[in-house]
Design brief:
The chain is α/β, with parallel strands linked by helices. The protein folds into three domains: 244 residues, 3-Layer(bba) Sandwich (FAD/NAD(P)-binding domain), CATH 3.50.50.60; 119 residues, FAD/NAD(P)-binding domain (3-Layer(bba) Sandwich), CATH 3.50.50.60; 66 residues, no CATH class. The protein is 33% helix and 20% strand. Helix 1 links the parallel strand 1 and strand 2.
């Protein structure tokens, strides 16, 4: 129906991105219209989330109080226009326990997200009806301009617009793995799988990857009684840097002054120039670049984006995605005791050993052989949707009907910067939208709360706009 706002929106995925999209939709739909606006029509929202928890995902569903937010509490509000929203919640529920500069436990943020969802969905309004389906979406077909979503239970949901808030998939295996190793607990393909609770019985541990997920595993295993040596292997051999108080820094250029096409090398030079101007305060410079990152990313042709991912992204990531000082201190302590070792290289193969697995590592300093009782895949979420389609029925359904396509980097789904997904022929879909991790190839910087909250707020406005 032309010029009519949509009557229904289905959101597939009820992690933080999906939940926030629903919250913003409710806010927009219940906002009094200005005289120039089309009067609101009743809106039905379907939030489809497998399992009981809405708003948590693996990030905020962690049971460990030692798993901390990697953004200070003062920066974790879910509302872009109310930056102290989480901080006020924290003061109300845990008075006197945290400062705005503290890195609060992630599970408290999960509690905040759940509170927000409960308070918002219960808000009575004749204008919005919100249905939560605790189910898995396994198919999507288009019928007369509307999407029909098949759920695993056999039920179906029909909606005018659909948001794919699919979030983070388990990582891809970087080496050949035998089923038996997974059954015996020697190889853990998904670091977030709650079945591996026996950390105290594990002798030595190998983590493939050395980013924030690997450090999460170090913290969780220590908490569960692990006292062996932990080896971290990654191609760059870098660990996330520690948070510190950054100074304020204003960049010396405006984005619109830059060339339309930017090379990875030019971006690197730009960063170095600003770093010199800031007297070496890299945290301040990264902070100043952050709001510009998606725009700078889009100025790079695909070949330059690939070059950036190969050469600069590992370095950027460890400086940009930092750890709380307490986690950094634990890592340094374990390193000093020789109980945490970082290897620069690749795990070239795994084989069965006398008591666990033996890993062959092509390390920078020469080949290494490590015998460990458990290997955990911490290489980060799988982002190649061609591979995801092999395990995920919904993604297979969408790709096979050409309703969506992967982005040119295979880092997510192809979309306009506002989240409108592209069909296989490149045309923007009038029905399907996304935000968060699936947008990584398009925006590069899009998976943390400060970015997700902005995307969710803007997407809600876009979804309810009449076409
Ligand atoms: C361990 C970890 C820690 C993090 N810590 C921080 C932090 O401190 N600060 C910060 O700003 N960011 C952090 N992040 C970034 C994080 O990605 C976002 O903050 C946010 O949690 C992402 O939410 P999401 O909804 O996009 O994805 P997810 O949390 O992955 O949620 C997606 C949800 O969709 C569901 N789903 C998928 N497919 C279907 C389907 N077909 N049917 C039904 N349901 C489906 C999944 O079950 C899942 O619950 C962290 C990320 C991780 C992984």
């Amino acid at each position: 129906m032309a010029n009519t706002p949509p009557g229904s929106v289905a959101i597939i995925g009820g992690g933080l991105s999906g939940m926030l999209t629903a919250v913003h939709l409710i806010r927009v739909a219940t906002r009094p219209p200005t005289p120039a606006q089309t009067p609101s029509v009743p809106l039905r929202i379907f939030l489809i989330q497998e399992g009981p928890d809405v708003g948590l995902g693996v990030a905020y569903g962690t049971p460990f109080p030692e798993h901390l937010l990697n953004v200070p509490a003062g920066g974790m509000s879910v509302f872009p226009r109310d930056p102290a929203h989480f901080w006020r919640w924290l003061q109300t529920h845990y008075p006197g326990q945290y400062n705005a500069a503290d890195f609060a436990p992630r599970r408290l943020f999960g509690q905040y997200a759940r509170d927000l969802w409960e308070a918002t969905r219960r808000h009575p309004s004749a204008l919005v009806d919100c249905v939560t389906c605790h189910d898995r979406a396994i198919s999507l077909t288009m019928e007369a301009g509307r999407a029909r979503i098949g759920l695993r239970s056999g039920q179906t949901v029909t909606a005018d617009r659909v948001v794919l808030a699919l979030g983070n998939y388990p990582p891809a295996n970087p080496v050949a793995v035998e089923e038996e190793w997974v059954r015996k607990g020697w190889y853990c393909p998904n670091p977030w799988d709650p079945r591996y609770q026996d950390a105290g019985q594990v002798g030595d541990l190998l983590l493939i990857g050395s980013g924030l997920t690997a450090l999460d595993m170090v913290v969780a295993y220590r908490k569960r009684g692990f006292r062996g040596t932990v080896h971290l292997v990654s191609t760059h051999g870098l660990l996330p840097r520690v948070h510190g108080a950054p100074g304020d820094y204003a960049l010396s250029f405006r984005e619109d002054e830059l060339p339309v096409a930017l090379s990875a090398g030019a971006l690197y030079q730009l960063f170095k120039q600003e770093l010199r101007r800031a007297g070496g305060d890299w945290r301040a410079v990264i902070g100043a670049f952050r709001p510009l990152t998606p725009g700078l990313w889009r100025r790079m042709p695909v070949a330059e984006q690939q070059r950036f991912l190969r050469r600069l992204a590992p370095w950027w990531n460890v400086h940009r995605h930092r750890v709380a000082p307490s986690i950094h201190a634990l890592v340094e302590e374990l390193r000093a005791e020789g109980r945490l070792r970082v290897w620069k290289g690749r795990v070239s193969s795994l084989r069965r050993g006398a008591d666990g697995l033996v890993a062959e590592i092509s390390a920078a300093g020469g080949p290494q052989t490590l015998a460990v009782q458990r290997v955990i895949n911490c290489t980060g979420p799988q982002s190649d949707y061609r591979q995801i389609a092999r395990q995920d029925a919904l993604v297979a359904s969408l790709l096979s009907q050409s309703l969506v396509r992967p982005d040119p980097l295979w880092a997510g789904l192809d979309a306009l910067p506002n989240g409108q997904l592209r069909r296989a022929d490149g045309s923007p879909s009038p029905t399907l939208f996304t935000l968060g991790t699936p947008m990584r190839g398009i925006l590069f910087e899009c998976t943390s709360v400060p970015e997700i909250r902005q995307q969710a707020a803007e997407l809600a406005e876009r979804l309810l706009r009449p076409d």
